[in-house]
Amino acid sequence: MYAIMFSDITGSTSLYDTLGNDAAEHLIGSCIQNLIAITQKNYGHLIKTIGDEVMCRFDNPNDAARAAIEMQTTTESDKNSSLSIRIGLQYGTAIEKNNDIFGDAVNIAARMAGIAKAKQIITTHEMVEELSNDLAEQSRLFDRAKIKGKEKELKIFQIVWEKENKVTRFATLNEMKKIATSMVAIALNYDSQEKLYTDGEMTKTIVIGRDENCDISIDANYASRQHVSLEFRRGKFVLIDHSTNGTYVRFKGQGDVFIRREELPLMGEGLISLGEEVVEGKPALISFSVLQANK
Q: Starting at the edge strand that comes first in sequence, how are the strands of the sheet with 193-198 ordered?
């Protein structure tokens, strides 16, 4: 049994256009060397590099998770680099042969890296179940997906390495009890107000818009009367746009996503703007935090 990691540099292709071949190659090469050094520091073994991707194995899943977190924090704190990485992890069976490694864990780890976006660490319940309590507490249910070769859907988790600032803001005992007894909840903050919805409470659609009869009424210049709705489906909170001008969503640490007459699952933390681009500090913004139970 091994913990397999794929760590991939994102956005590297555009660097060659903006910096030129030599400068981009130096920056990417330096990042790869840092990833390898962090792997070895955490008792991991480099299997190979594949372009801008590093493949490693660890005997202990905790070492793999700590290495992944250190890779993200080190890359993010490098003031001389604009690079980001995405990481996929899996713990399971694999076979080493001819200085390479093969097997189920390798295939799933590669799939997790493909699912991950920049600055994310994505893994499965099989990995999370092997983690120590402190690392398991940093894991959040991210999605469920059907993986080729697997009969059942896999529970996919995100290991949250950034400090969460809104997740622990709830002050009342009742709210804390609601979160503790739910599998997932979402907190929406707007106009100095806060609403919390748990999976158990989401038996109906939450409507957000300019109309005062909406569940959440937002005084935004470009908002429709019933601009978006929020539903809970298959373990996820899904934002559905019904508007004329569309909706902008900015996930923490990422760029804006625009939807119009489309759906978007909400994960982690971020901002929602009705009908116009996200401008931080604007009073009509809705901030959201998706909270996963540690179960």
A: 193-198, 184-190, 286-292, 269-274, 247-251, 256-259
